[in-house]
Amino acid sequence: MPDVTKTAAVANEDAIAPPSAAAPVPQKPEKARSLWGDAWADLRRNPYFLVSSVLIFFLLIITAFPGWFTSASPTTGDLVHHYLGKPDLGSVGSESWLGYDGQGRSVYARLIYGTRASVIVGIAVTLIVTIFGGVIGMLAGYFGGIIDAILSRVTDIFFGIPFLLGAMVVLQSFTERTIWVVVFALAFLGWTQITRVMRGAVITIKQADYVQAAKALGAGTTRILFRHILPNAMAPVIVVATIALGGYISAEATLSYLGLGLSSPIVSWGVDISTGVQQIRTAQHILLYPSIMLSITVLAFIMLGEAVRNALDPKLR
């Protein structure tokens, strides 16, 4: 006969004995990231975004504080001593580093101060066309019907005007072409692309369930537009605006080169490129350095736009 008492005691000891291995601690589920959170995570790993961001940050610093980079005046020249002076590449950062132009002015100083005009024009035009074109596109896409028909036809009329040709015609009507006049001319014709992109995004988003639920709960039109539709429609608009910013900088330089944009005494890369063409046989450096600076700036913004597009478009991940 088995010892029943002993067997029961052993069973009780096994029941109260602590487990040999610790029970696994339940982990908290990882919080789902939004579209913008996923985009930021992708951007931080994108070398194009990192390189373009550093370049743009450096350009913004030059724009805000040009005096940090040179003490020379971009408008004061010395024809006697500095007429078409060759670059002194050994004296980095000095007045004579990149040589002098046909009026004895420092090319390096003009390169630094010319950054301000180009960057201000590009950013200002981008902000204006994004706000104006975004509002027009949002209204057309959300309300539809006669409002969409009228706004879309007006957009098509402006879209049919060649961008540079139209800007030339607008600028010809001004006797004094300052930075803000150029901004107005470019923004006057540059809002159509943003409008089309925003309209298409709003038409898609307004059919979403969360928008229909907001309408069913009695939310007003303003709340639906700015709390539910606008935040979700901004992704493609930001991509287009970022890429277009580099194009606006290039357009300003083109107009200044043709003598229809900025002019002296305003310092601009386009003005310096136009001056450099006249001296291309004897002093190539006058044309070379503003052209390189313009190309780097436009490339930086295009790279940034491409990186943002890849991060915000789920099909490209």
Describe this entry's structure for a reader.
The chain is built from 13 helices and no strands. By secondary structure, it is an all-alpha fold. Helix 7 crosses helix 8. The chain is elongated and about 80 Å long. 36% of the residues are buried.
User: So how many helices?
Assistant: 13
What gyration radius follows from the Cα positions, in whole Å? 30 Å
Strand content: under 5%
Largest sheet: none
* Average residue pLDDT: 81
Features:
single chain; 317 residues; 13 helices; mainly alpha
Indicate the topology.
Blueprint: H1 4-16, H2 35-43, H3 47-64, H4 79-82, H5 107-143, H6 145-159, H7 163-172, H8 179-190, H9 192-205, H10 209-216, H11 221-257, H12 269-278, H13 285-312
Helix pairs in contact: 2-13, 3-5, 3-13, 5-6, 5-8, 5-9, 5-11, 6-9, 7-8, 9-11, 10-11, 11-12, 11-13, 12-13
Task: Offer a quick outline of the entry.
The chain has 317 residues and is mainly alpha-helical. It contains 13 helices and no strands.
